[in-house]
Amino acid sequence: MSENIREKGDRLYLMRNNDLLLHICCGPCATYPLEVLKADFNVTGFFYNPNIHPYREFKKRLQGAREVLKYYQIKGIFDEEYYLEQFLQAVLQEKSLRCSACYRMRMEISAQKAKDLGIKRFTTTLLISPYQDIEDVIRAGQNAAYNYGLEFLAQDFRPGFPVSREQAKKLNIYRQGYCGCIFSEKERYYGGGK
């Protein structure tokens, strides 16, 4: 009898230790990481993206994240606040390093959310994009993890990028044409570098 109780307790302990918070930037980028991660982890999705502008774009990506988490039957937490001023203040202080500032902002809040939930590790769907600086994303994630006493799972999801695009099409999830920030949108239409 006591052995069964201990065994059940160990399973619960292991399940709790397999919790992972997945920062989600958008629905399409979440598909492949969710397929990979849910095999080994009890995943909670977390949508927090102060970089996405304009507001209509933010709402489309929020809805896409909701749809993907529903499809994969993953619990989700959605920060629906539109942080235009905070984002601009953070990145305008470091114009030449705006992407780094953006990664830091999102990884810090993700780490804080994981800590608040009692989850010991987190990662991000940003690690799937061939358009993001993966080393910079990992550095931001590791620094945030260190600050909160957590583990950052630095898994390179980029090989699954084409799979994620196909899955998003299959699910009819909104697929964006830029990273989300207003500067990226300007570059998309106007041209120019960072």
Q: Could you please describe the fold and organization of this structure?
A:
It contains 8 helices and 5 strands, in the order αβαβαβααβαβαα. It has a 5-stranded parallel beta sheet with strand order 3-2-1-4-5, sandwiched between helices. The protein has 194 residues and is of the alpha/beta class. It has helices at 2-17, 27-37, 55-72, 84-92, 98-117, 134-148, 161-171, 182-190, and strands at residues 19-24, 42-47, 75-78, 121-124, 151-152. Strand 4, helix 6 and strand 5 (151-152) form a beta-alpha-beta unit. It has one domain (2-190): 3-Layer(aba) Sandwich (Rossmann fold), CATH 3.40.50.620. The protein starts with a helix and ends with a helix. The longest helix has 20 residues, at 98-117. Helix 4 crosses helix 5 (98-117). It is 56% helix and 11% strand.
Q: H/E order of the elements? A: HEHEHEHHEHEHH
Number of domains: 1
Query: What is the CATH topology classification name?
Result: Rossmann fold
Shape: globular
Radius of gyration: 17 Å
SS-derived structural category: alpha/beta
Biggest sheet character: 5 strands, parallel
In DSSP terms (H or I, runs of 4 or more residues), the helix count works out at 8
Instruction: Classify the beta-strand content into a percent band.
Output: 5-15%
For the record, the CATH architecture stands as 3-Layer(aba) Sandwich
CATH superfamily: HUPs
> What's the mean pLDDT score?
85
User: What's the β-strand tally?
Assistant: 5
The spatial strand order of the largest sheet comes to 3-2-1-4-5
> How far is it from the N-terminal to the C-terminal residue, by CA?
65 Å
- The CATH class turns out to be Alpha Beta
The residue fraction in helices comes out at 55-70%
Poorly predicted sequence stretches spanning 5 or more consecutive residues: 1-15
